[in-house]
Protein: S-layer protein (TIGR01564 family)
Organism: Methanococcus maripaludis
Amino acid sequence: MAMSMKKIGAIAVGGAMVASALATGAFAAEKVGDVDAFAADVVADGNANVDIVVGSNAAALDVVSAANIAAKIGSLMFTEGTVEDGAATVSVSAEASSDDFELYIDGDGEQASTNDVAFITSPDKDYNDVFVGVGSKGDFTYSAIEPLGKLDTLTEVDDMDPSEWVSGDEDNAAEMAFVKVSGTNDSNDGEYDILEGDAVYLSAAFNDDKDAFETLSVGYRIPFLGEEYAVVKVDNDDDYIAVGKEVFDGVIKEGESYDLGNGYTVAVDSVLSPLSTTDEPKVNVKILKDGKVVAEKFDTTQIKMIYGDIGVVVNSAWQNVGQDYGYAEILIADNVVKMELGEEFLPDWEVYAFDSNAMTLEKDISDISEVANVTQLSGVALQYSGDDEEDLEKDDSFDIADYLSFELEDDDDDINAYFEMDQAKEVSLAIGQTVNVLNAEIKLAEIDAEAKEAVVMTAPIAVLDSEASLDDADKGLILVGGPVVNALTAELADAGLVAIDNESPATLAVAAGAANGNDVLVVAGGDRAATEEAAEALIDML
C-alpha cells in the first residue's frame, strides 16, 4: 500500500460587488423604448431606484445575469459619505484532495485492497480515529478501513457551544465522508462497486480532544454541507432535526424585541417569577410579522419555536434583583431547515440521526441508545439511497451529496482512490459579521468609501417573480428573462406591451408606466444565451 499527500489547491474569496469583474467588452442588444433614460435613472440620490425580478423557472444563466446587474448597480451607488452600516455578498471557493490509496496495482496483477474496504476522511485526521479504533460496528461495516487523512475543505466548528448552554468545554463538530468499496479479490479486474447504503456524509459532535463523540444538543453549532448551522430543535415525536443560520445569540430584556427584517420581529413579551426557587421563570415569546403575532409560546425554559424558516430557542430566563423586569437568553435563527429522518433530503440521499454508541443511523430518535440516561444522538447523516454503482474503474468518480466526490484515478494503469472537493458558495455578511464556510472563516471588516457625511446605501437584491407584482411596485423594475420563464414579463407580453418570443435577439425593452406607474425594463432574448447577452449590454450601458 502506498500513500501520498494531495495538497490543497486553492481557497479564493471574491466580493460579488466588484465592478471590474462584471463586464469585459461591448455587447449588442436591440433597444425598444427609451432604454437610455431608464438606464440613467437606476440610481437616484445614491440609492437603487429599481428592483430586479428573475423568473421562478429561470435557467441558471438568468439568475447569474440578474446577480451581475444587481452588482453593477451596487457599484454605482458609491457616493461621498461614511459607511456606518452595510452588507455584502461574498463568494467562497475551495478545492482540495485527501491522501490517496493504491487500490489496484495492474503491474502485479493483483488487487491491493481486501474486499469491502471502507475509506474515510475529515477536516482533521484525528477525527478518523474514532472509526479506526472501534472496528466494524452497526451500520459502519467493513472488512478493512483506510483513513485517507484530512480533506482541508471539509468544515469543522471549533466551539460548537459558544454560549456555554450545555458545558464550558470547547467541544467540536466536524464533517466526515465514509465510502465502502466492494471488489472481487479473485477477479483482478480493477472494477469496484459502491452499493446502496455504503456511502455516508456525517456531521457529528466531538469532544475537544477529537477522540470521542459528544451528545448533540439544541443550541449547538454544527457544519452541514460546508456551512455552519445552529441546532434549534430535536423533535422526538415527529422525528426531525431542525437547524438554521444564527442571526442573534444573546440576552433580550422583557418588553424588547429583535428585528429580523422583512417585517419580522422576535419579542420577549414577559418574564414571570417562578412559584418556588427550584422552578424556572415562565417566558412569553412571540414572533410577529408587520406587528401581528404569528407564533407564540408561554412556558418555562427551554422553549423551542419554529415558524416558517425562523427558529427561536429560549434557553434560560431570570428577573432582576428587584423583580421589576426580566431577561431571556435567546437564540434566533433564519433559513431553518427541518431534516425529516428517513426521508430523502437530496436526490438519492436520505437523512438520519447518528447513534454514536451503536454506530448506527436511525430514522426514529426514540431508537437511539442511552448511556447513563444520556442519549447518544451525536450527529446528522446523509446516506446514499440510490441505485448500486457497479463496475467502477479507473477515472470513474462517485458523487457524495453533491458536495464532494470519491475518485478512482488512473495512475499508469494502477488505480488510486481518494476524496476530492471543488466547491463554491455565496454568503451574505453584515459589517463585523463572521461566518464559517468551506472551513474558511470569513469576516466583513468594512466597506471602504471616501467620506464627507454619512449616507445610507441599500444595494438592490434580485427577487423571484412570485415575490413581486406589477400592481404593487413602488419603483422601476428590471425583469430578467422572457415570458416563458418570467411571469411578470408574460403579463406584459399578454398586454401587448413587449414582444419577445423564441426567435428574439438580445433585447432591452421599456414598458413605460407598466409597474404601478413606474417604468419596466425587460432584459431578455429568444433563449438563455440571448438573455445573457442582453444583460451584458445593459451592464455596459450603466
